UniProtKB/TrEMBL annotation:
Protein's UniProt keywords contain Signal: no
EC code(s) of this entry: 3.2.2.27
Gene3D superfamilies reported in the protein's UniProt record: Uracil-DNA glycosylase-like domain
Official protein name in the record: Uracil-DNA glycosylase
Example GO BP: base-excision repair, AP site formation via deaminated base removal
The species this protein was found in: Methylobacterium gossipiicola
Keywords for this protein: Cytoplasm, DNA damage, DNA repair, Hydrolase
GO cellular component, one term: cytoplasm
Protein purpose: Excises uracil residues from the DNA which can arise as a result of misincorporation of dUMP residues by DNA polymerase or due to deamination of cytosine.
Length: 230
């Protein structure tokens, strides 16, 4: 079966990305997931983000360029909001509440952030990877069990296996569960609760993850990340 997601996968494979060495792409897993998502499209579901953006996180941040990793759950379920990067928002309405909480922790946080497109971070070595690369309109979490999670696990392991140090920013229980995949003798972990306002423990505000990540990188001989978006 062919479809827009299978076509996007084929284009990504032609890119020659270092991520293509992951078992997810070299075996049948990627084709199986793409076929399942394309089946939903054939059934009338609106799948997000646009096909050309599904693999943006890997396309914009090659394995060799990763300095930091931020893991999300899945794309925003409203058309036009997501661009394939975890937490990144390109919609025209107010910024999502979780993203506002995240941006408030920036070293030079604007009083009222107006930009939610995190593409500059991806281009500077921040892997912004969701656990599921697709979602359905109005159905958050719809594709979390479709098989995308294997890609997330393998990507985390691939960064962990590198000699070059990187720092993992793990926010919330799902992200923190992947700490077991990380070699902490070579890489850093900055953990906190999830930035969602629904997090009753409120253990993300004030955690200063970006300053902590940069401090770890600098201590291990890696140039700090420029987290500015403007």
């Amino acid at each position: 079966m062919t479809g827009p997601v299978a076509d996007a996968l084929a284009r990504f494979r032609r890119s020659g990305s270092p991520w293509l060495d992951l078992p997810f792409f070299s075996g049948d897993a990627a084709d199986t997931v793409a076929a399942r998502v394309d089946e939903r499209i054939a059934q009338g579901a609106t799948v997000l983000p646009a096909p050309e953006n599904i693999f943006n996180a890997l396309a914009l941040t090659p394995l060799t360029a990763v300095k930091a990793v931020i893991l999300g759950q899945d794309p925003y379920p409203t058309p036009g909001d997501a661009n394939g990067l975890a937490f990144s928002y390109v919609g025209s309405r107010r910024l999502p509440a979780s993203l506002k909480v995240i941006l408030a922790e920036l070293p030079e946080a604007p009083a009222e952030p107006s930009r939610g497109d995190l593409t500059p971070w991806a281009e500077r070595g921040v892997l912004l990877l969701n656990t599921a690369l697709t979602v359905e309109k109005g159905k958050s979490g719809a594709h979390l069990r479709y098989g995308w999670a294997a890609l997330t696990d393998q990507a985390v392991e691939a960064v962990s296996q590198r000699e070059a140090p990187a720092v993992f920013l793990l926010w919330g229980a799902q992200a923190r569960a992947r700490a077991a995949l990380i070699d902490t003798t070579r890489h850093g972990i900055v953990e906190s609760g999830h930035p969602s306002p629904l997090n009753r423990q409120r253990d993300f505000p004030g955690s200063q993850p970006f300053a902590a990540a940069n401090a770890w990188l600098a201590a291990h001989g890696v140039a700090p990340i420029d987290w500015r978006l403007d």
